[in-house]
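Local shape tokens

___
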Amino acid sequence: MGRPGVTKIQAMPSTTTDTSDWLHIPHTGEMLVSEFMEPLKLDTAALAQAIAVDPARLQAMIDGDTRIDGELDITLSRYFRMSEGFFLRLQTSAELRTAKRALNGELDRIQPRAA
């Protein structure tokens, strides 16, 4: 028997979900290449020169080795005539979807706090 006013939390049983049929979540670099660079036939060197950034820095973001930052977002957004923050929002969206997948249903056990 527990103490009054104390709720005992029980662990939820662990489940395994087959993720092999889940769609790939592209990162910002993949989206940049497929939606912007390939249609315009731009390579990394040409884009880096056009926006005055180091090609290695741009390539690292394309490869998913580094995250996009505010400066790179602003320069890419200006070049492609997108709103500032566009590429940062792509990154955030992909990270949130990836995190939600990683939690794999664990969020269901969290009861939202009443207002």
About this structure: The first helix runs from residue 28 to 37. The two ends are 29 Å apart (CA to CA). The domain at 28-101 is CATH 1.10.260.40 (434 Repressor (Amino-terminal Domain)).
